[in-house]
């Protein structure tokens, strides 16, 4: 069964794109087939995988969503690019900002991305959707298409207000279009080892948003090498394979795979 995970947080610059790349390629390194979907008109994911001029790409997420809206047939693998580290990418560029507007007047406007992925995801074990820093219609589409949400949070920033808004949006999506949507976990990113702040933030998150809000055991350290990878169009495993950030993203990858296995066991138990 394919697992679709949306990486979302309407706060900008918290590590959504970086985590999409390094979790995605981490899964590939464990033999999984993975599609990354760039759902941000800034095209940062596309850029950081080496397509440095996303606006020059002719086929993107906006193209395929447009075809779903107008009921045009899609070609096999239409718009999907392949990266040297073994991962597929559906890119995005500035055209996605027009999609935000055109979705408003579209029928079944929340389910366009889900309809697109229904067929396409059959070729993959995991689909990771890198959301833009807003809770607009494209992000709602991603949450509607997803099995779970992974929420990166910058460790030195108290996320209380933004987190309530995000959790409200997730609840709304659950009520309206995707009752089975789960929270995969909150991931602390850019953790500066010299402080205890990340422990405090884990504590506050659990205190304010309930024990059910799982915080990943893995934390991603602040590391200059991580910031440098995007210019190189490579993952952290290629760029700095023996560094702390590569080890952390490898640990996160294993945690995500373990979560999936535990859930499968649980579901098998329920259906017996
Ligand atoms: N662990 C880290 N250590 C140091 N720098 C990092 C780390 N993770 C990400 N960065 C850098 O921080 C910036 C923001 O990261 P990223 O683009 O992944 O965030 P984002 O949530 O996708 O941002 P946006 O909301 O704009 O889409 C980037 O320049 C990235 O290279
Ligand atoms: Mg981003």
UniProtKB/TrEMBL annotation:
Coiled coil: none annotated. It holds the Pfam family AAA_31. It catalyses: ATP + H2O = ADP + phosphate + H(+). It comes from the Bacteria. Residues 2-183 form the AAA domain. Dimerizes in the presence of ATP but not ADP; ATP-binding is required for double-stranded (ds)DNA-binding. Interacts with DnaA. Belongs to the ParA family. This is Sporulation initiation inhibitor protein Soj. It comes from Christensenella minuta.
């Amino acid at each position: 069964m394919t697992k679709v995970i949306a990486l979302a947080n309407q706060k900008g610059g918290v590590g959504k794109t970086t985590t999409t790349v390094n979790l995605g390629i981490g899964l590939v390194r464990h033999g999984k087939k993975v599609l990354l979907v760039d759902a941000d008109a800034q095209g940062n994911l596309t850029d950081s995988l080496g397509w440095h001029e996303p606006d020059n790409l002719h086929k993107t997420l906006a193209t395929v969503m447009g075809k779903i809206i107008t009921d045009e047939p899609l070609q096999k693998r239409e718009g999907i690019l392949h990266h040297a580290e073994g991962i597929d990418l559906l890119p995005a560029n500035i055209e996605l900002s027009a999609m935000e507007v055109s979705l408003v007047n579209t029928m079944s406007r929340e389910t366009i991305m889900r309809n697109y992925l229904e067929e396409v995801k059959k070729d993959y074990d995991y689909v990771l959707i890198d959301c833009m820093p807003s809770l607009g219609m494209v992000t709602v589409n991603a949450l509607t298409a997803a099995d779970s949400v992974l929420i990166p949070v910058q460790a030195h920033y108290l996320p209380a207000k933004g987190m309530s808004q995000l959790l409200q949006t997730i609840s709304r999506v659950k009520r309206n279009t995707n009752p089975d949507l789960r929270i995969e976990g909150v991931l602390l990113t850019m953790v500066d080892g010299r402080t205890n702040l990340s422990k405090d933030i884990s504590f506050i998150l659990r205190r304010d948003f309930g024990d059910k809000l799982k915080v990943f055991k893995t934390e991603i350290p602040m590391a200059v090498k991580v910031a440098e990878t995007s210019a190189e169009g490579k993952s952290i495993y290629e760029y700095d394979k023996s560094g702390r950030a590569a080890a952390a993203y490898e640990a996160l990858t294993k945690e995500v795979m373990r979560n999936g296995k535990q859930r499968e066991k649980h579901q098998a138990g329920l259906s017996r």
